Amino acid sequence: MKFGQSNEQLTGVLAAAGAYFSWGLLPVYWKLMPSVPAQEVLAHRIVWSFVFMVFILLVSRKGRAFWVECKEIISQRNRLFGIVLASALISVNWFTYIWAVSNNHIVQSSLGYYINPLVSVLLGVVVLKEKLSLWQIISFLLAATGVLNMVIHFGAVPWVSLTLAASFGLYGLSKKMVNAGAMTGLTLETLFVVPFALMFIGSIHNVGNGAFGFDNPVITWLLVGAGAITAVPLLLFATGAKRLPLAVIGFLQYISPTLMLILGVFFYHESFTSVHLMSFVLIWVALTIFSLSRTGLFIHLESQFLKRTQLDTSDKKA
Fold first, then answer.
1. ∠ CA(25), CA(29), CA(30), 5° rounding?
2. What per-residue confidence (pLDDT) applies to 3?
3. How many CA atoms lie within 13 A of 82 on its CB side?
4. pLDDT for position 16
5. End-to-end alpha-carbon separation of the chain, Å?
6. Which of 123, 154, 190, 209 is the most exposed place for a label (fewest CB within 10 A)?
7. Residue ranges per domain, the chain?
8. What is the pTM of this model?
Protein backbone atom coordinates (compact mmCIF):
# COMPACT_ATOMS: atom_id res chain seq x y z
CA MET A 1 0.00 0.00 0.00
CA LYS A 2 1.35 3.45 -0.94
CA PHE A 3 1.92 6.12 1.70
CA GLY A 4 -0.85 8.34 0.28
CA GLN A 5 -3.37 5.49 0.39
CA SER A 6 -2.31 4.60 3.95
CA ASN A 7 -2.80 8.21 5.02
CA GLU A 8 -6.25 8.31 3.42
CA GLN A 9 -7.32 5.12 5.19
CA LEU A 10 -6.03 6.38 8.54
CA THR A 11 -7.98 9.60 8.05
CA GLY A 12 -11.05 7.56 7.16
CA VAL A 13 -10.76 5.32 10.23
CA LEU A 14 -10.25 8.28 12.58
CA ALA A 15 -13.18 10.19 11.06
CA ALA A 16 -15.60 7.24 11.09
CA ALA A 17 -14.53 6.16 14.60
CA GLY A 18 -14.95 9.77 15.76
CA ALA A 19 -18.48 9.79 14.37
CA TYR A 20 -19.46 6.54 16.08
CA PHE A 21 -17.83 7.55 19.38
CA SER A 22 -19.78 10.83 19.24
CA TRP A 23 -23.08 8.99 18.62
CA GLY A 24 -22.29 6.51 21.38
CA LEU A 25 -21.68 9.28 23.92
CA LEU A 26 -24.73 11.32 22.87
CA PRO A 27 -26.86 10.10 25.84
CA VAL A 28 -24.54 12.05 28.17
CA TYR A 29 -25.49 15.26 26.33
CA TRP A 30 -29.25 14.65 26.47
CA LYS A 31 -28.97 13.73 30.16
CA LEU A 32 -27.69 17.27 30.83
CA MET A 33 -31.21 18.57 30.10
CA PRO A 34 -33.51 16.40 32.25
CA SER A 35 -36.04 19.20 32.79
CA VAL A 36 -36.60 19.88 29.07
CA PRO A 37 -39.32 17.75 27.37
CA ALA A 38 -38.12 15.51 24.54
CA GLN A 39 -40.30 17.26 21.95
CA GLU A 40 -38.78 20.64 22.82
CA VAL A 41 -35.23 19.24 22.61
CA LEU A 42 -36.13 17.74 19.23
CA ALA A 43 -37.48 21.06 17.92
CA HIS A 44 -34.31 22.89 18.91
CA ARG A 45 -32.14 20.08 17.53
CA ILE A 46 -33.83 20.49 14.14
CA VAL A 47 -33.58 24.31 14.10
CA TRP A 48 -29.97 24.55 15.26
CA SER A 49 -28.84 21.67 13.02
CA PHE A 50 -30.21 23.62 10.07
CA VAL A 51 -28.53 26.85 11.23
CA PHE A 52 -25.22 25.03 11.75
CA MET A 53 -25.39 23.40 8.30
CA VAL A 54 -26.09 26.74 6.60
CA PHE A 55 -23.08 28.19 8.45
CA ILE A 56 -20.89 25.26 7.27
CA LEU A 57 -22.06 25.72 3.67
CA LEU A 58 -21.22 29.43 3.76
CA VAL A 59 -17.81 28.95 5.42
CA SER A 60 -16.83 26.13 3.03
CA ARG A 61 -18.11 28.16 0.06
CA LYS A 62 -20.26 25.28 -1.13
CA GLY A 63 -23.48 27.30 -1.27
CA ARG A 64 -23.61 27.31 -5.07
CA ALA A 65 -23.03 23.53 -5.31
CA PHE A 66 -25.74 23.05 -2.66
CA TRP A 67 -28.19 25.18 -4.63
CA VAL A 68 -27.50 23.29 -7.88
CA GLU A 69 -28.04 19.92 -6.13
CA CYS A 70 -31.21 21.22 -4.46
CA LYS A 71 -32.72 22.23 -7.81
CA GLU A 72 -31.94 18.77 -9.22
CA ILE A 73 -33.61 17.04 -6.25
CA ILE A 74 -36.70 19.29 -6.27
CA SER A 75 -37.17 18.84 -10.04
CA GLN A 76 -37.33 15.03 -9.70
CA ARG A 77 -40.47 13.73 -7.99
CA ASN A 78 -38.94 10.51 -6.61
CA ARG A 79 -35.95 12.30 -5.09
CA LEU A 80 -38.16 15.04 -3.63
CA PHE A 81 -40.43 12.40 -2.07
CA GLY A 82 -37.35 10.63 -0.73
CA ILE A 83 -35.99 13.74 1.01
CA VAL A 84 -39.38 14.57 2.56
CA LEU A 85 -39.70 10.99 3.77
CA ALA A 86 -36.14 11.11 5.14
CA SER A 87 -37.02 14.31 7.04
CA ALA A 88 -40.02 12.63 8.69
CA LEU A 89 -38.14 9.43 9.53
CA ILE A 90 -35.09 11.12 11.05
CA SER A 91 -37.42 13.29 13.14
CA VAL A 92 -39.14 10.14 14.47
CA ASN A 93 -35.73 8.57 15.14
CA TRP A 94 -34.37 11.64 16.95
CA PHE A 95 -37.50 12.06 19.07
CA THR A 96 -37.55 8.38 20.08
CA TYR A 97 -33.88 8.47 21.02
CA ILE A 98 -34.14 11.70 23.05
CA TRP A 99 -37.27 10.43 24.80
CA ALA A 100 -35.64 7.05 25.52
CA VAL A 101 -32.52 8.64 27.07
CA SER A 102 -34.65 11.03 29.16
CA ASN A 103 -36.78 8.14 30.43
CA ASN A 104 -33.90 5.76 31.26
CA HIS A 105 -34.12 3.47 28.23
CA ILE A 106 -30.50 3.74 27.06
CA VAL A 107 -30.08 -0.07 27.10
CA GLN A 108 -33.12 -0.43 24.82
CA SER A 109 -31.66 2.25 22.55
CA SER A 110 -28.43 0.29 22.38
CA LEU A 111 -30.38 -2.83 21.38
CA GLY A 112 -32.10 -0.85 18.62
CA TYR A 113 -28.83 0.25 17.05
CA TYR A 114 -27.39 -3.26 17.33
CA ILE A 115 -30.25 -4.73 15.30
CA ASN A 116 -30.39 -1.78 12.87
CA PRO A 117 -27.93 -3.32 10.33
CA LEU A 118 -30.06 -6.47 10.18
CA VAL A 119 -33.23 -4.41 9.71
CA SER A 120 -31.54 -2.49 6.88
CA VAL A 121 -30.69 -5.73 5.08
CA LEU A 122 -34.23 -7.04 5.64
CA LEU A 123 -35.60 -3.87 4.05
CA GLY A 124 -33.26 -4.47 1.12
CA VAL A 125 -34.80 -7.93 0.69
CA VAL A 126 -38.42 -6.73 0.98
CA VAL A 127 -38.16 -3.46 -0.98
CA LEU A 128 -35.16 -3.88 -3.29
CA LYS A 129 -35.65 -7.66 -3.81
CA GLU A 130 -32.09 -8.45 -2.71
CA LYS A 131 -31.23 -12.06 -1.88
CA LEU A 132 -30.00 -13.29 1.49
CA SER A 133 -27.20 -15.79 1.94
CA LEU A 134 -27.57 -18.78 4.26
CA TRP A 135 -25.50 -17.06 6.97
CA GLN A 136 -27.55 -13.87 6.76
CA ILE A 137 -30.74 -15.90 7.24
CA ILE A 138 -29.18 -17.54 10.31
CA SER A 139 -28.26 -14.05 11.59
CA PHE A 140 -31.85 -12.88 11.27
CA LEU A 141 -33.22 -15.93 13.06
CA LEU A 142 -30.77 -15.49 15.96
CA ALA A 143 -31.53 -11.76 16.29
CA ALA A 144 -35.28 -12.42 16.12
CA THR A 145 -34.87 -15.05 18.86
CA GLY A 146 -33.06 -12.46 20.99
CA VAL A 147 -35.90 -9.94 20.63
CA LEU A 148 -38.54 -12.65 21.17
CA ASN A 149 -36.74 -13.72 24.36
CA MET A 150 -37.31 -10.23 25.81
CA VAL A 151 -40.95 -10.17 24.67
CA ILE A 152 -41.70 -13.53 26.33
CA HIS A 153 -39.91 -12.80 29.62
CA PHE A 154 -40.95 -9.17 30.07
CA GLY A 155 -44.40 -9.50 28.48
CA ALA A 156 -43.85 -6.37 26.40
CA VAL A 157 -42.45 -5.57 22.97
CA PRO A 158 -39.20 -3.51 23.14
CA TRP A 159 -40.83 -0.78 21.06
CA VAL A 160 -38.03 1.75 21.66
CA SER A 161 -35.48 -0.65 20.12
CA LEU A 162 -37.73 -1.59 17.21
CA THR A 163 -38.75 2.02 16.49
CA LEU A 164 -35.13 3.19 16.45
CA ALA A 165 -34.03 0.29 14.24
CA ALA A 166 -36.97 0.58 11.83
CA SER A 167 -36.92 4.38 11.53
CA PHE A 168 -33.16 4.50 10.92
CA GLY A 169 -33.33 1.56 8.50
CA LEU A 170 -36.12 3.23 6.50
CA TYR A 171 -34.21 6.52 6.69
CA GLY A 172 -31.21 4.84 5.05
CA LEU A 173 -33.48 3.39 2.37
CA SER A 174 -35.03 6.79 1.62
CA LYS A 175 -31.53 8.31 1.41
CA LYS A 176 -30.75 5.81 -1.35
CA MET A 177 -33.70 7.22 -3.32
CA VAL A 178 -32.33 10.76 -2.96
CA ASN A 179 -28.63 10.00 -3.50
CA ALA A 180 -27.54 13.42 -2.20
CA GLY A 181 -24.29 14.55 -0.61
CA ALA A 182 -23.99 14.46 3.19
CA MET A 183 -24.19 18.24 3.64
CA THR A 184 -26.97 18.72 1.10
CA GLY A 185 -28.97 15.82 2.55
CA LEU A 186 -28.87 16.97 6.18
CA THR A 187 -29.52 20.63 5.25
CA LEU A 188 -32.57 19.75 3.17
CA GLU A 189 -33.88 17.22 5.70
CA THR A 190 -33.82 19.81 8.47
CA LEU A 191 -35.11 22.56 6.15
CA PHE A 192 -38.35 20.67 5.49
CA VAL A 193 -39.15 20.28 9.19
CA VAL A 194 -37.75 23.62 10.47
CA PRO A 195 -41.09 25.45 9.99
CA PHE A 196 -42.90 22.89 12.19
CA ALA A 197 -40.12 23.06 14.80
CA LEU A 198 -40.28 26.87 14.89
CA MET A 199 -44.07 26.84 15.21
CA PHE A 200 -43.81 24.40 18.13
CA ILE A 201 -41.12 26.48 19.88
CA GLY A 202 -43.20 29.62 19.34
CA SER A 203 -46.33 27.99 20.77
CA ILE A 204 -44.65 26.82 24.00
CA HIS A 205 -42.98 30.20 24.51
CA ASN A 206 -46.32 31.95 24.03
CA VAL A 207 -47.68 30.15 27.08
CA GLY A 208 -44.45 30.69 29.06
CA ASN A 209 -43.23 27.08 29.09
CA GLY A 210 -40.17 27.34 26.87
CA ALA A 211 -36.77 26.38 28.29
CA PHE A 212 -34.83 28.58 25.84
CA GLY A 213 -33.98 32.07 27.08
CA PHE A 214 -31.74 34.33 29.18
CA ASP A 215 -33.25 32.91 32.38
CA ASN A 216 -31.67 29.51 31.64
CA PRO A 217 -28.27 30.28 30.03
CA VAL A 218 -26.82 26.77 30.49
CA ILE A 219 -29.89 25.03 29.01
CA THR A 220 -30.05 27.63 26.23
CA TRP A 221 -26.46 26.97 25.15
CA LEU A 222 -27.00 23.22 25.38
CA LEU A 223 -30.01 23.52 23.06
CA VAL A 224 -28.00 25.63 20.61
CA GLY A 225 -25.14 23.11 20.81
CA ALA A 226 -27.54 20.34 19.75
CA GLY A 227 -27.05 21.57 16.18
CA ALA A 228 -23.29 21.04 16.26
CA ILE A 229 -23.41 17.66 18.01
CA THR A 230 -25.87 16.50 15.35
CA ALA A 231 -24.05 17.80 12.29
CA VAL A 232 -20.39 17.21 13.18
CA PRO A 233 -20.64 13.38 13.55
CA LEU A 234 -22.53 13.19 10.24
CA LEU A 235 -19.80 15.17 8.50
CA LEU A 236 -17.14 12.96 10.11
CA PHE A 237 -19.03 9.88 8.96
CA ALA A 238 -19.25 11.21 5.39
CA THR A 239 -15.47 11.82 5.45
CA GLY A 240 -14.82 8.27 6.67
CA ALA A 241 -17.28 6.59 4.33
CA LYS A 242 -15.54 8.07 1.26
CA ARG A 243 -12.17 6.62 2.28
CA LEU A 244 -13.03 3.21 3.74
CA PRO A 245 -14.39 -0.11 2.43
CA LEU A 246 -17.95 -0.95 3.49
CA ALA A 247 -16.68 -3.87 5.60
CA VAL A 248 -14.61 -1.53 7.79
CA ILE A 249 -17.55 0.86 8.22
CA GLY A 250 -19.72 -2.14 9.11
CA PHE A 251 -17.27 -3.14 11.86
CA LEU A 252 -16.86 0.38 13.28
CA GLN A 253 -20.63 0.97 13.52
CA TYR A 254 -20.85 -1.27 16.60
CA ILE A 255 -18.79 1.25 18.61
CA SER A 256 -21.89 3.40 19.08
CA PRO A 257 -24.36 0.90 20.62
CA THR A 258 -21.55 -0.64 22.71
CA LEU A 259 -20.83 2.74 24.30
CA MET A 260 -24.57 3.28 24.86
CA LEU A 261 -24.83 -0.09 26.59
CA ILE A 262 -21.85 0.69 28.85
CA LEU A 263 -23.31 4.10 29.73
CA GLY A 264 -26.77 2.70 30.42
CA VAL A 265 -25.60 -0.14 32.67
CA PHE A 266 -22.53 1.23 34.46
CA PHE A 267 -23.08 5.00 34.57
CA TYR A 268 -26.85 5.40 34.68
CA HIS A 269 -27.53 2.08 36.47
CA GLU A 270 -30.32 0.88 34.21
CA SER A 271 -31.64 -2.65 34.71
CA PHE A 272 -29.63 -5.35 32.92
CA THR A 273 -30.88 -8.80 33.89
CA SER A 274 -29.94 -12.30 32.75
CA VAL A 275 -32.78 -12.00 30.21
CA HIS A 276 -31.15 -8.89 28.74
CA LEU A 277 -27.81 -10.68 28.70
CA MET A 278 -29.21 -13.70 26.85
CA SER A 279 -30.91 -11.48 24.26
CA PHE A 280 -27.78 -9.39 23.72
CA VAL A 281 -25.59 -12.50 23.41
CA LEU A 282 -27.92 -13.89 20.72
CA ILE A 283 -27.80 -10.57 18.86
CA TRP A 284 -24.01 -10.26 19.24
CA VAL A 285 -23.59 -13.77 17.79
CA ALA A 286 -26.00 -12.85 14.99
CA LEU A 287 -23.99 -9.71 14.19
CA THR A 288 -20.70 -11.62 14.26
CA ILE A 289 -22.04 -14.18 11.77
CA PHE A 290 -23.57 -11.39 9.69
CA SER A 291 -20.28 -9.44 9.60
CA LEU A 292 -18.29 -12.54 8.60
CA SER A 293 -20.88 -13.86 6.12
CA ARG A 294 -18.97 -12.49 3.12
CA THR A 295 -15.55 -13.81 4.12
CA GLY A 296 -13.97 -16.68 2.21
CA LEU A 297 -14.40 -19.28 4.97
CA PHE A 298 -18.13 -18.63 5.40
CA ILE A 299 -18.73 -18.56 1.64
CA HIS A 300 -16.90 -21.90 1.34
CA LEU A 301 -18.94 -23.44 4.18
CA GLU A 302 -22.17 -22.24 2.58
CA SER A 303 -21.26 -23.68 -0.82
CA GLN A 304 -20.39 -27.03 0.79
CA PHE A 305 -23.73 -27.06 2.63
CA LEU A 306 -25.65 -26.27 -0.55
CA LYS A 307 -23.82 -29.02 -2.46
CA ARG A 308 -24.68 -31.59 0.21
CA THR A 309 -28.31 -30.44 0.25
CA GLN A 310 -28.52 -30.85 -3.53
CA LEU A 311 -26.92 -34.31 -3.35
CA ASP A 312 -29.35 -35.41 -0.61
CA THR A 313 -32.30 -34.14 -2.66
CA SER A 314 -31.15 -35.96 -5.82
CA ASP A 315 -30.57 -39.20 -3.82
CA LYS A 316 -34.11 -39.04 -2.43
CA LYS A 317 -35.57 -38.52 -5.91
CA ALA A 318 -33.59 -41.51 -7.22
1. 115
2. 47
3. 20
4. 85
5. 54
6. 209
7. 3-132+157-274
8. 0.85
Could you give the 3-state DSSP secondary structure of residue 215?
A: coil
Contact 110, 265 (CB under 8 A): no
Closest CA to 20 of 255, 264, 258: 255
236, 8 contact by CB (below 8 A): no
pLDDT at 139: 85
> Taking the C-alpha atoms of 42, 251, 165 and 200 in order, what is their torsion angle to the nearest 10 degrees?
10
User: pLDDT value at position 229?
Assistant: 92
Predicted pLDDT of residue 246? 62
Residues of the chain with pLDDT under 70: 1-6, 246-247, 294-318
Q: What is the pLDDT of residue 309?
A: 65
Count Cα neighbours of 197 within 13 Å in the Cβ-side half-sphere: 26
> CA nearest 220: which of 25, 33, 29, 31?
33
CB atoms within 10 A of CB 214: 6
Quote the CA–CA distance of 290 and 275 in Å, as a whole number: 23
Q: Which alpha helices (DSSP H) does 155-273 contain, by range?
A: 159-178, 182-206, 217-243, 246-252, 255-262
Instruction: Look up residue 265 and give its DSSP letter.
Output: I
Q: How many CB atoms lie within 10 A of CB 200?
A: 18
Residues 54 and 96: their CA atoms lie apart, in Å, by 26
